Amino acid sequence: MLAAYVKLIRPKQWIKNLFVFAPLIFAKGLFEAELFTLACKAFVTFCLTASAVYIINDIADIEADRAHPEKKTRPLASGLMTRWNALGMLGVLLTTDVLILIGMDIHFVVILSIYFVINLAYSFKLKEVVLLDVFIIAAGFMLRVLGGAYVIAVPISSWLVLCSLFISLFMGFAKRRGELVQVNERGGVTKRKVLTKYRVDFLDQMLTITAAGTVISYALYTVAPRTLEIFKTEKLVYTTVFVIYGVFRYLFLIHTTRATENPTNAVTSDIPILGTGFLWVASCIILIYARGHIFP
Asked: pLDDT tens digits for 180-230?
């Protein structure tokens, strides 16, 4: 049962919540203990909230998940645990979430509440609305970034928010494409109504647009006047190469594997993407925090 509970809350999906640390890094507060602690608390609350939403979604989608080749192994769909077990865990998560939120910035609490509400709306209705389903996923990533900014009380670049929007739309459309390819391989039979409205060629066009938007918005962020003024370096633009490679590598996976039906698995299981992500983070930290000592 312990393994079932772990699988129910999906800790692997918590990697998405690392987006809350983006404002901390780019606000030059990574090594300030108070700000780092606040960002960690924000990360934990997003993890708890996300897991609560996953449980609610699994309860609502039991029948659909039982007809899915992979989701049928989930604890509720497989019958390994009951709805009451899941509801008990849901109560524990939400109670812990509320206790952590006591005393935190009210703006962050509002952002987290919006995240919870729109994800509930997604679980029960909006996931069946073509295009809007992907935009709701993207909104979740943007709210993580905004939440990370509000919790440490720093302004955030519009370009960084725009880049978060494009990369999350990119991964959302990739997820839909992976799901649709699997449905087509099964003869087009699915209980997910929204998948019947998508076409692979249309999703490929959306991927091209969002991939370009991701690279362009990030590149413009690195050379924006406000960015140059804050970081006192023009060399951040060189980190764009890691973003470009990461996007291209993901496009390669989209067209050659099934991994992108679950973007988290695709990112965490692909060594080149993991390596690129590490190099991007490391280079950003070095340029932002040690520019005067290493790169004059």
From this structure: 888 887 776 676 778 888 999 999 999 999 999 999 999 999 999 988 888
Judge whether 6 lies within some domain: no
Residue 40 falls within a domain, yes or no? Answer: yes
CA–CA distance, 251 with 170 (Å, rounded to integer):
10
11-43: per-residue pLDDT in tens? 888 998 999 999 999 888 888 999 999 999 999
Kindly give the interhelix angle for 132-151 and 33-60, rounded to the nearest 10 degrees: 150
Is the pLDDT at 124 greater than 80, yes or no? yes
Query: What are the tokens at 140?
Result: 């979740």
Residues in the chain: 296
Give dist(CA 28, CA 289) in Å, integer. Answer: 7
Quick one: 149 and 208 in the same domain? no
Residue 203's domain comprises 157-296
For residues 177 and 211, give the distance between their C-alpha atoms in angstroms, rounded to a whole number.
14
Q: CA 9 to CA 16: how far, in whole Å?
A: 14
Same domain, 79 and 23: yes
Stretch 260-282: mean pLDDT, rounded? 83
Cα-based angle 211, 143, 31 (whole degrees, multiple of 5): 95
- Whether residue 253 contacts residue 270, with contact meaning beta carbons closer than 8 Å, is answered with yes
Mean pLDDT of 78-94: 87
* Dihedral class, residue 267 (left if φ above 0, else alpha if ψ from -120 to 50, else beta): alpha
